[in-house]
Protein: Transglycosylase SLT domain-containing protein
Organism: Microbacterium ginsengiterrae
Amino acid sequence: MTPGTEIEPVGRATAPVTPAGASIVASRRRSAARRRGVSGTLAALGVVALAAAVVAPTGMALAEQPDADIETPFSLAVADTQDLTVTVSGATIEPVARGSFEVYVTPPPEPEPEPEPEVASAEESGSAPSGGGGPIFYTGGGAPAEWMAAAGIASGDWGYVDYIVSKESGWNPNATNSSSGACGLVQALPCSKVPGNGYDPVDNLRWANGYATGRYGSWGAAYDFWITNHWW
């Protein structure tokens, strides 16, 4: 810019402000300020309401405490855990006192008793038992002829046998000599030499048949000896 060419600023004309115009401007300013105040109040209330909505559930959750008496698997496991105490000098384990319990053990089965052997009764054996281990007397039936035949004595010797037995015992199978202990039909002495039972007539006569033929040679010779000596 050269000297002498400066541009003079154009001055703006300022309209004069009348009292009525100033009143309108002031009124508008007050209205705008009231609107701003109401908007600020509403905004503040909105912030407070939002904060209350956020904080209220958390406060209620913090205020409500869980029930301490509720049992859970974890609480039961903790209660059942053994309490251990460890000292500085070593580990000392003190078991927690627990309730006692009993264990039932099934007993082993008892062995079955072995069956006892059957013992023939006196009626089946044809002899009468006596107490105290004494002689077993004969209780069966029969006749002299049946007994001699069962003992194997020849029928031709039955007369000799009948005479000797009639003199010795009177055909009483249970005849016993109280002084010598001779027993049975032929009075065997001692009675224990008769195989089987000395009081059984068949056993007694079977032994007598061997005795007569073995000592005297025959029943006839035994008969002759008895006639002479009155014993045999």
Summary: Residues 106 and 209 are 67 Å apart (CA to CA). The helical segments are 19-63, 73-80, 122-125, 144-151, 158-168, 201-215, 219-229. The beta strands are 85-86, 91-92, 127-128, 137-138. The first strand starts at residue 85 and ends at 86.
